[in-house]
């Protein structure tokens, strides 16, 4: 995160409330522990929380990088009514390890951590449901471990190549903010970077402004967002936004996943709000290059289509996952 400016285009936000789900089916196996830690190969501890019941298991991949599982958990409730859902804090966020050695924060370790979570729960193949930056992690994981992923759902995802989307994103964000709002964001960013300041309050002040341009109709839909970006302790909030986010994103470089995606057989549903600050035209490339991907544009929705238009989004997603 750039403390005195808008957070980077990859940074995630909240989730949705809503529902329309199929009847809940009993779990085929005893439910795993509700919360705990997965220990990765380098001894990094990854906090997880398990919710829901059903015939299969989903791993939910939060965005950021730099926020934690609470950024999506409450708004993914519709998934838990028919599936076991494993949420986890990526390294450098929430209740997971905040590495003193920042070389342990990278795209490579993100991929290995996701595999450690899958293996911890004994899942031969698993569905991934991801938001914002999360689809970039999910897709790179699927390219590295194609046999381990049964299907994927992308909500408000960054595009499969970096290109110029970040510049387009920031232009859109700035177009929806006046000078007073920009000043409030800059002030909150400075406080997030100041170890003496209240990081949680700075986080709340930041998103009170920064969420609005990410929504198609903020006055109507802000009350629908149930997840929370600022529940972690102050140290984790500050570390995630000022260290994890820029460090991890830098390791992706000028990413372009399209060559590998052309041969990836994983069925994928790409759900994207037509008013998302991440341009729909860039996101169309997921469906254009993946042989088994389908794009679902959502009208009157922005970055949180599952909260803004639950009537459209959840029936489509749940049918896709139930196949």
Describe the protein.
An 8-stranded mixed sheet has the order 1-2-4-3-5-6-7-8, with helices on both faces. Helix 2 crosses helix 3. The protein contains 12 helices and 8 strands. With 323 residues, the chain is α/β, with parallel strands linked by helices. It has helices spanning 77-80, 107-120, 134-144, 165-175, 179-192, 199-210, 218-221, 234-252, 258-261, 280-289, 305-308, 310-322, and strands spanning 35-39, 45-51, 57-61, 84-88, 126-131, 149-155, 268-273, 293-298. Strand 5 (126-131), helix 3 and strand 6 (149-155) form a beta-alpha-beta unit. Helices cover 37% and strands 15% of the residues.
Structural class: alpha/beta
Order of helices and strands: EEEHEHEHEHHHHHHEHEHH
Please give the radius of gyration in angstroms.
Answer: 18 Å
Q: Per DSSP, what share of the residues sits in E-state strands of 2 or more residues?
A: 5-15%
Widest beta sheet: strand line-up = 1-2-4-3-5-6-7-8
> What kind of sheet is the major sheet?
8 strands, mixed
Number of helices: 12
The average pLDDT value, as a whole number, equals 90
Unreliable runs: 1-30
Topology:
Elements: E1 35-39, E2 45-51, E3 57-61, H1 77-80, E4 84-88, H2 107-120, E5 126-131, H3 134-144, E6 149-155, H4 165-175, H5 179-192, H6 199-210, H7 218-221, H8 234-252, H9 258-261, E7 268-273, H10 280-289, E8 293-298, H11 305-308, H12 310-322
